[in-house]
Amino acid sequence: MENIEDKLIRKLEEHFTGDYSGHDLMHLIRVCNIAKHIQKIEGGDKEIIIYSSLLHDVHRLIQRKTGNYCDPKDSLVEVRSLLSEFNLPEIMVEKICHSIQCHEEYAFSKKGITVSDIETLILQDADNLDAMGAVGIGRAFAYGGVHNLPFWLAEVPIHPVDDYSDSVDDISNIHHFYNKLLKLKDHMNTATAKKMAVDRHKFMENYLEQFFDEWNGKK
To answer: Is this prediction's pTM over 0.90?
Structure first.
């Protein structure tokens, strides 16, 4: 019998085909795998974590259709529709929707982290870990390519923003590293994610050092 994870992945495949922004089906699967790894150590409801991990970027589908930013909370009607055939208890659906609605909270935004349930904290960590390291670098430039962002605008000083929001694109891919990606290591929620973030963060630092050396003709 097909398990819930495989069934939902098969259902989502048709929806996320053709996404080249780094928010594709493989991103959802990676986030789910990271979240399951964290859950084994940190606890929490595994089913809620699986469902919310695989459905957390439904708002990206809406963005792709409309061309406008869509807040995760505005995707919950579609999330509920996708969940309808699984016959889940309403309390579980509510918890899944809660995690999805709150997964784009950041400690370095004005609102900060407002949640305390372990399932949502794990989803936040897993999604942020996939934005880091070698995969995160690839995703950042994939997103920039789809959204017509330049690699780097050397004439614009790097001044990391104090109130980060996913609703506003950074002016270049490299500025995005400083406004978001390099901040993630110090703002993981769980002890497990904090450990996982160390190597990914270091990889990004090394990449940026090499990038600027090459950009300036030093190597």
So the answer is: yes
